[in-house]
Inverse folding.
């Protein structure tokens, strides 16, 4: 993690989730604007990349209409906009005059780092069509000087990995937002119907005795008390849940620290109707007790009903 010198705050910025907020992101090409935009997207902001500055006022007007549910907006304006970029100063002045809450985030890096990043990605620098890459970087830096001087927050990403950049933005620019927590989806599924393609963690619980083979339980699901009692009453289930919860208590903070905003945990049994449903519910309860935002779904819960 970088030290304090990597971030130069013009002021401590805290976003009140109940207030409207516009974040304008600009800065050097290759300094991390895309990572910054991804961070705001993960935090629930309505985001637009490479917007002509003259359209910002129209965007603000749309979000201010009665009934609009968009409170937080983030836009990227940079030299890719060509001649349109020259309108950014006027757009920022208009925001000041209107009193609409907004912040300017400026991303930069040293020349050596920017050259290395462009060579690694083989991307074209927007100002290097008829000049060398180094000359394009110098021209861009001069063009952006006025915005760096007035930025609310300046981030130097020269020595930051992408996840470190995201963490810094969340920690220093967006502390206090309701959307800062990791959102977890816990689902049950049946292996006979396929593993969920978007699952980050897949747990196979077919090692437990199957209630399907108990005539009184076959047509019930893991949401019914008799099935729940059958599954949770096993010694092996108790041991599994103890170790499983210990692992989750290690994994969730680590995922959050790496900047992950959404996590899908999928627990599977044969048909997705009994064991996986019970244990998905138990997993969700454990995570909620630890303050996580959890959604629960049971993809295949009714597919085996009535089948012999």
């Amino acid at each position: 993690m970088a030290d304090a010198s990597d971030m130069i705050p013009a002021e401590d910025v805290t976003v009140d989730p109940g207030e409207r907020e516009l974040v304008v992101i600009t800065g050097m090409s290759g300094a991390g604007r895309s990572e910054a935009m991804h961070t705001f997207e993960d935090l629930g902001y309505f985001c637009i990349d490479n917007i002509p500055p003259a359209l910002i006022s129209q965007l603000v007007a749309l979000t201010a209409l009665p009934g609009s549910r968009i409170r937080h907006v983030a836009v990227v304006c940079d030299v890719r906009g060509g001649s349109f970029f020259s309108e950014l100063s006027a757009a920022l002045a208009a925001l000041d005059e209107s009193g609409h809450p907004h912040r300017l985030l400026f991303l930069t890096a040293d020349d050596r780092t920017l050259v290395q990043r462009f060579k690694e990605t083989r991307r074209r620098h927007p100002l290097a069509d008829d000049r060398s890459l180094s000359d394009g970087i110098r021209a861009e830096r001069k063009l952006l000087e006025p915005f760096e001087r007035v930025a609310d927050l300046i981030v130097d990403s020269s020595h930051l990995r992408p996840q470190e950049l995201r963490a810094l933005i969340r920690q220093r620019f967006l502390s206090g937002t309701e959307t800062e927590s990791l959102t977890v989806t816990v689902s049950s599924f049946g292996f006979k119907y396929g593993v969920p393609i978007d699952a980050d963690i897949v747990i196979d619980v077919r090692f437990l005795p199957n209630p399907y083979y108990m005539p009184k339980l076959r047509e019930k699901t893991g949401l019914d008390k008799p099935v729940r009692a059958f599954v949770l009453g096993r010694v092996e289930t108790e041991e599994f849940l103890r170790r499983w919860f210990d692992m989750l208590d290690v994994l969730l903070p680590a995922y959050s620290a790496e900047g992950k905003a959404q996590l899908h945990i999928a627990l599977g049994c044969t048909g997705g109707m009994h064991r996986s449903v019970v244990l998905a519910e138990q997993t969700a309860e454990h995570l909620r007790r630890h303050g996580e935002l959890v959604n629960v779904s049971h993809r295949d819960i009714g597919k085996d009903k009535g089948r012999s």
